[in-house]
Amino acid sequence: MKATRILQTLIVLLALTAVAMAGSIPAGTFVTVRTYSTLKSGTNHSGEGWSGTLVNDLVVNGNQTIAHAGDPVKGVISYAKDSGRLHNPGILSLRLTSVNGISVTSSTRSFKGKGHTTSNATKIGGGAGAGALIGALAGGGKGALIGAGAGAAAGTGLALATGKQQVTVPAESVLSFKIISSH
Q1: pLDDT for 106-163, tens place per residue?
Q2: Could you read off the pLDDT of 60-70 as tens digits, one per residue?
Q3: Strand 102-106 and strand 109-112: pairing?
Q4: Which of 66, 97, 99, 140 is at 20 to 30 A from 7, Cα to Cα?
């Protein structure tokens, strides 16, 4: 009778251990996901959630499948910064928070919009050059100087009007994250 009770206790402990191990993802595991929706630095905000699916089966310990391709994943936008008009491109940072219902802490994937420098220099410099040419044709050397200033101002206005360099992570993007811990 005592041996039966000990055997039952061992079976329960083994079952609980198996359930606990099935509900965790080892640190260092890489998880590849596909996003459902488009995420943008100009419209999304820090703290907002996002979701997607697993791209591949998640196999740990060599042969234990914890989750299958297509299973749900959830994440959070850990940082979102809107782009400035003349400098500071948009930034978007993403983390995973759960894989198939298992809570996780993951590495962060950060994305940055294109820099403003080349685009702004082209607009402002092009405006100055065009203004100088028109001014030189209309009024000689003094006209070229006045035209260059006016053209640079027009180019700066164009850069201000069109200058936002947001970052966009399109829907269906495939991203990989490294699991730091699961709970």
Answers
A1: 999 999 887 644 544 454 444 444 444 454 555 555 554 554 454 445 444 444 444 5
A2: 888 899 999 99
A3: unpaired
A4: 66
Angle (CA) 174 106 39, round 5°: 45
Residue with tokens 């008009």: 85
Describe the chain by its helix, strand, coil percentages, rounded to 5.
Answer: 35, 35, 30
What is the token pair recorded at 6? 């000990």
In total, the chain counts a number of residues equal to 183
Taking the C-alpha atoms of residue 62 and residue 172, their distance in angstroms, rounded to an integer, is: 28
Could you tell me if 39 and 169 are in contact, meaning their C-beta atoms sit under 8 angstroms apart? yes
Phi, psi at 138, each rounded to 5° = -85, -35
Tokens of 105: 């802490």
How far, in Å, are 18, 29, 49, 76, 160 from residue 80 at the CA level? 39, 26, 12, 11, 21
pTM: 0.63
| Encoded amino acid at 132, one letter | A
